[in-house]
Amino acid sequence: MRDEPVVLGIETSCDETGVGIVRGHTLLANTIASSVEQHARFGGVVPEVASRAHLEAMTPTVERALERAGMRLTDVDAIAVTAGPGLSGALLVGVAAAKAYALGLGVPLYGVNHLAAHVAVDQLEHGALPKPCIAMLVSGGHSSLLLVPDVAEEVVSLGSTVDDAAGEAFDKVARVLGLPFPGGPHIDRVAREGSGTAVAFPRGKYDDGTLDFSFSGLKTAVARWVEARQRSGGAIHVPDVAASFQEAVVDVLTRKALQACAKYGVDDLLIGGGVAANSRLRAMAQERCDAAGVRLRVPSPGLCTDNGAMVAALGSDLVSAGVVPSRLDIPADSSLPITTVHV
Length: 343
Description:
It is an enzyme of class 2 (transferase). This is tRNA N6-adenosine threonylcarbamoyltransferase. It holds the Pfam family TsaD. Keywords: Acyltransferase, Cytoplasm, Iron, Metal-binding, Transferase, tRNA processing. Helix content is 44%, strand content 19%. By secondary structure, the chain is α/β, with parallel strands linked by helices. It has two domains: 139 residues, Nucleotidyltransferase, domain 5, CATH 3.30.420; 166 residues, ATPase, nucleotide binding domain (Nucleotidyltransferase, domain 5). The strands form two sheets. A five-stranded mixed sheet has the order 3-2-1-4-5, with helices on both faces. A five-stranded mixed sheet has the order 8-7-6-9-10, with helices on both faces. It is globular and about 65 Å long.
């Protein structure tokens, strides 16, 4: 194994087939085949459709990544794959493919945690992670606060969503407002033309003394507000509603994140996951971190959403740390806990 191993990462936890290749912490390729258009007419991800799309996209996506990196399969030193959490069928496609590649090439296999990979990916842009750091992961299925002493060895859960994750709330509110799926990018776009103070939507668990999140009540409040306006014949200015909803989500997320930094005496905050691409979240987080003296790290939007580069990045950390590779009979675990970085 070279000092800076070449790791190929495979990500299939939801609706995107991602393949990334890294050498150490240098990104060589990051290719994605998305099936989001196939799910859009259903207003959400259909697990069986996602699984079939992964199956069809796997080999072409690996080939595109190798071509982009200027490599052959035989140049790869290790295979990393998302083993969980995620959709069971989708995970199975990626895990099976990774096992086949690892066995065929005679290289080690590393099954990794999807959420920990969202933390590790930032190193491809901003260098090694501070030890420790606080990480806030916000996506369609997860809203979590983590203490990360070392992403290759230990991740500690500090808080998580008790109902809808932030990304779920974005999708559901977008549907109420007549915006396309996935809702996050469309709400972000429309909200730029609205006022975040137009409607006083509630902030769930804002002052409850925990580091947990709740967005179900906010989602319902938006739906009830829209229904009430429709019944009364009042005008609904979608940009104002979108901006006010987004402001409520971002206010809670950044408040809790900085509470975690203060509570654990950590001066470095990392934000990852698909919702980390939201422009208002990035702006408010920077404002509040600057005021609190906390250093903020956020990957570029293309590395926030699910991708193979993040899996390869975490795999590279595991190889460098001398972690024992996974067995070839590792399962795909849809409910893999965040505290399990490697299986």
